[in-house]
Specification:
Layout lengths: L4 E6 L3 H13 L3 E7 L3 H11 L3 E3 L2 H5 L6 E4 L6 H10 L3 E4 L7 H14 L3 E3 L8 H11 L5 E11 L17 H17 L5 E9 L5 E11 L3 E8 L1 E12 L2 E5 L9 E5 L2 E5 L6 H13 L9 H20 L3 E2 L1
Parallel strand pairs: 1-2, 1-4, 2-3, 4-5, 5-6, 7-10
Antiparallel strand pairs: 7-11, 8-9, 8-15, 9-10, 11-12, 12-13, 13-14
Helix pairs in contact: 1-8, 4-5, 5-9, 7-9
């Protein structure tokens, strides 16, 4: 392929510098042509470090560049809606970091703009693009582990000492549910293929960290009496796991969202390891995005999916704050 999707990056966040920009470069379809920061010096330093051709000292300049086809937005959560909408209005396709917005209403506004402008809008859940999740779904459908009974997932890490981190600004969309809890929620919806009915969540709201949820544990009820039990945290030992439990067996994913891709299938016949290729999930995400923009493949995860995930996240946050079961 000679043509490349020309990417601009709005912001110099660690996820952009360390993961997404390298992923785009490893993709078959994309190239990073510009990066913007709120100040020109930071943009120029990052551009020089990563060998990016253009640096802009404002986000506005980048989205007005006619030589950029798509933008990636790794800004703090409270800025996702504004800059996604402004980019789409300026004629750019948008890959927005998760969670796509602060709430369902914001996500819906973004989805509406995507439809009106005809610009592709995607939420950056990179793990969904690795073929292992299609394989997990295939095993579930095959009946090998019997009838589905439950899903459990955990995503935790400890960064509590970094008090200035944007994750600990409540008004900016801080907290573990927004940052890592959204992964188990989206994974359960993906594997079950249905939308949840209710959520009950308990959280550790830390005064030291602007009262954001530093740890949360919950139950999400799905149709058919199936539940997701999950926990997420930013003040706990590292884990990123997923287990699918059936009547005749279970699927164990030791590194569910980042890390080694292979997983285990346990049945009465024994345990086998499902070997999976070591693929760059960020590169896969970039290729799916570009091929969707070019009309080479159907949009797999629509903006409506992002809206639905925010609806569930809203319910989890409300449950944690009110200590009640929230019906969706």
């Amino acid at each position: 392929m000679t043509n490349k999707l020309r990417w601009g990056v709005i912001g110099c966040a660690g996820i952009a510098v360390n993961s997404v920009i390298p992923g785009i470069r490893q993709s078959a379809t994309g190239e990073v042509t510009a990066i913007a920061s709120r100040g020109l010096q930071k943009a120029e330093e990052t551009a020089a470090k990563l060998d990016i051709p253009k640096a802009y000292g404002s986000y506005e300049e980048l989205i007005e560049d006619p030589n950029i086809d798509a933008v990636y937005i790794p800004l703090p959560n409270h800025l996702h809606m504004e800059w996604s909408i402004r980019a789409m209005e300026a004629g750019k396709h948008v890959l927005c970091e998760k969670p796509i917005a602060l709430n369902e209403a914001e996500a819906q506004r973004m989805a509406d703009v995507s439809r009106r402008t005809g610009k592709h809008l995607a939420e950056a859940f990179m793990y969904r693009h690795h073929p292992r999740y299609e394989r997990i779904a295939e095993i579930i459908r095959s009946g090998e582990i019997g009838e589905l009974r439950a899903i459990h997932s955990a995503f935790t890490f400890n960064n509590a000492g970094d008090k200035t981190n944007v994750r600990y600004r409540k008004e900016w969309g801080g907290g573990s549910l927004y940052d890592v809890g959204c992964y188990p929620l989206s994974a359960a919806r993906l594997l079950l293929g249905t939308e949840p009915e209710a959520a009950t969540v308990h959280a550790l709201l830390s005064p030291e960290h602007d009262h954001v949820d530093m740890m949360a544990s919950g139950v999400v009820e799905f149709p058919g009496s199936i539940a997701l039990t999950f926990d997420c945290g930013m003040w706990a030992a590292f884990r990123n796991t997923l287990e699918v439990l059936g009547t005749e067996g279970r699927i164990e994913v030791p590194s569910a969202f980042i890390g080694e891709a292979s997983f285990l299938v346990h049945t009465s016949g024994g345990t086998r390891k499902e070997e999976q290729p070591a693929l760059n999930q960020y590169a896969l995400q970039a290729d799916v995005f570009a091929r969707t923009v070019w009309g080479e493949q159907q949009e797999r995860f629509t903006p409506d999916d992002a809206v639905a995930n925010m609806k569930l996240l809203d319910a989890c946050l409300k449950s944690a704050e009110t200590r009640t079961r929230v019906v969706l």
